[in-house]
Design a protein that fits this description.
single chain; alpha+beta; DNA Primase, Chain A; DNA primase DNAg catalytic core, N-terminal domain; Dna Topoisomerase Vi A Subunit, Chain: A, domain 2; 5 domains; five-stranded antiparallel β-sheet; 16 strands; 50% helix; 9% strand; globular
Length: 609
């Protein structure tokens, strides 16, 4: 049902989430949050948190997440409309009248979910029965232990054409067909008129929604049958271009990594962000190996909807497709699909697997650390795009170089965000027309960061460590900030990932997470009283911290613009082409606009006095 604008916001505003949940769970206040034992799974140590000011709850143990409406739906097994009616009654709000059709659809969805859950339980039971021994042997051969098999609720569909139909006899046949569990036979030559089981002679992989509820299945055939993998047909609950396998578990894994719940795999491996693979077994193998944030599309190229879901969890997911030609094509398709949606701080990274390997086989061959090395070597989207276009044909003539530049410009122009588009154009232009070279036989020498700018950037990060509530306000500036120092750049990316996955984090929690993620040394340096006094912020309030941030940003922008303008003037001395002249004119005009006025001329020490 579509409610009038503002109705749900008004309902949520009238409900105290901690009060609602506190009726069922003993909550203990911890700073700005409440903690307690999760009501949705058995645990002895509290991992369930309620964030009142953000109006949501989250369990780091099982991944349960939602608002007041979602809590009531889970706790009392209600559908959406039933939960709305109950909360509205407590809040003294009149619920807009639902049409009979809307109520019927809500009830139908609930019934479909019940049927799919019953099917998942049936397939699980069959796997562990004598009839499923062949499928169980296959899973053991693939390196899966019983705990992992049960965790992912793997199952078995026998070759019996009516086994599931008999087991789910309480559900009407048309409903099971709509749920994608049964299908009408293609012909009537054998005199069969009843619907038959959709999945037969396959290892079954339940597919869940964000909340982990079963909404479909994937089945892998044993033997030489085709297709090798078969997904449920689309239904009112399931559209394969909108779903990711491992969705709910990855959300829980991403949340646990922010709370320090994911163990470090070695001194050189940071906690993982979202990892995108190609198949079910890859996801399961990665979770088992200690990478709890792996997901996979369902046998198709990544869609726009799936990309947006990935970015909800991680601003820079890592795509880790198979190390074969099909995997390389899949990575290229995902790259081109993502281009229009890139923005400051939102992109993809690409991990390259050895030829012939997939994540599952690589982990079995080289172990966790071997796969971690591949992740750590993941390259940004811009590098991957350059590699793809450069490999199309040689650039050994002026004409071919011009053709490459034309292709790269066309790719960059697909990016909707004008700032990011400009950065891509500049990057590719400089790659094709290097401005700094030792001589014609040596590689380009990149410009070194000016030492006087590092303390200014340290100011910015120190401000964020003390005032993390600013991160949301300045996220775009932080994401687009030029940070040539590797240690500060890694810190910047980690802070952005924390903000995207756990908004509202306080200073103590932020600092603790960064220490656990391998940033102890730089965090200690930024917080140390021994830092040069002229660059130690003394802001005591958020408003003065924001003022300090803005001032330092202007200083950095001014210095960067001046350096670029100086370089543009030098370039004109060796290249007076019309294109270079126009580029230099634009650059110098931007630099002129960056010249400070008024209080921007203040010495940096006055910023923090």
């Amino acid at each position: 049902m579509a409610f009038p604008p503002g109705f749900l916001d008004e309902l949520r505003s009238r409900i105290s989430l901690s009060g609602l949940i506190g009726k069922r769970v003993k909550l203990i206040r911890r700073g700005r949050e409440y903690a307690g034992l999760c009501p949705f799974h058995h645990e002895k140590t509290p991992s369930f948190y309620v964030v009142e000011e953000k109006s949501f709850f989250h369990c780091f143990g099982c991944g349960a997440h939602g608002d007041a409406i979602g809590f009531v739906m889970r706790a009392d097994n209600l559908d959406f409309l039933e939960a709305i009616e109950r909360l509205a009654g407590e809040a003294g709000l009149a619920v807009p009248h639902a049409t009979p059709q809307e109520r019927e659809r809500a009830q139908q969805q609930k019934t479909l979910l019940e049927a799919l859950e019953a099917a998942a339980a049936f397939y699980e039971d069959r796997l562990w029965s004598p009839a499923g021994s062949r499928a169980l042997d296959y899973l053991h051969e693939r390196g899966l232990d019983p705990e992992t098999i049960r965790r992912f609720r793997l199952g078995w569909a026998s070759d019996d054409r009516r086994a599931l139909r008999r087991a789910l006899s309480d559900f009407p046949e048309p409903l099971l067909v709509e749920a994608g569990l049964l299908r009408q036979p293609s012909g009537t030559a054998e005199g069969v008129r009843e619907a038959i089981d959709y999945f037969r002679d396959r290892v079954m992989f339940p597919i869940g929604d964000r909340a982990g509820r079963v909404i479909a299945f994937g089945g892998r055939v044993l033997g030489d049958g085709q297709p090798k993998y078969l997904n449920s047909p689309e239904s009112p609950l399931f559209a394969k271009g909108r779903v990711l396998y491992g969705w709910s578990a990855a959300r829980a894994g991403a949340a646990r990594s922010l709370s320090g719940g994911v163990a470090m795999m070695s001194g050189q491996v940071s906690q993982p962000g979202i990892i995108v693979t190609e198949g079910y077994m890859d996801v399961i193998a990665l979770h088992r190996a200690g990478f709890p944030t792996a997901v996979a599309p369902l046998g198709t190229a990544l869609t726009e909807v799936q990309l947006q879901e990935l970015w909800r969890l991680d601003p820079e997911p890592v795509l880790c497709f198979d190390g074969d030609e099909a995997g390389r094509r899949a990575a290229a398709r995902a790259l081109y699909r993502a281009l229009p949606f890139l923005r400051a701080g939102q992109s993809l990274r690409f991990a390259t697997l050895p030829s012939g390997e997939d994540p599952d086989s690589l982990i079995r061959a080289r172990g966790t650390l071997g796969f971690a090395e591949v992740l750590n070597a993941a390259r940004p989207l811009s590098e991957k795009l350059w590699e793809i276009e450069l490999s199309a044909k040689p650039i050994d003539t002026p004409e071919r170089r011009a053709e490459l530049w034309k292709r790269l410009k066309a790719r960059a122009e697909l990016i909707s965000d004008r700032e990011v588009q400009g950065e891509y154009r500049n990057l590719f232009y400089e790659r094709l027309h290097p401005r700094r070279a030792v001589n014609s036989r040596t590689r380009e020498v990149p410009p070194l960061p000016r030492s006087q700018e590092r303390p200014q950037r340290q100011i910015l990060f120190r401000i964020l460590l003390h005032f993390p509530s600013l991160i949301d306000d300045v996220a775009e500036e932080l994401a687009s900030l030029n940070v040539p120092e590797l240690d500060l750049d890694r810190l910047r990316k980690e802070i952005l990932r924390i903000e995207a996955s756990w908004p509202g984090v306080d200073a103590e929690t932020l600092q603790q997470h960064l220490v656990q993620a391998g940033f102890a040394e730089i965090v200690a340096a930024l917080l140390s009283p021994s830092l040069d006094a002229s660059f130690v912020p003394k802001c005591r309030e958020r408003i003065s911290a924001r003022s300090g941030w803005d001032h330092v940003i202007r200083m950095l922008q001014r210095g960067e613009a001046a350096a670029v303008a100086e370089e543009a003037v030098k370039d004109l001395g060796t290249d007076m082409s019309p294109e270079r002249w126009e580029q230099s004119r634009v650059v110098m005009e931007r630099a002129r606009q960056q010249v400070p006025t008024g209080d921007e001329d203040l010495d940096s020490t006055r910023l923090i006095a």
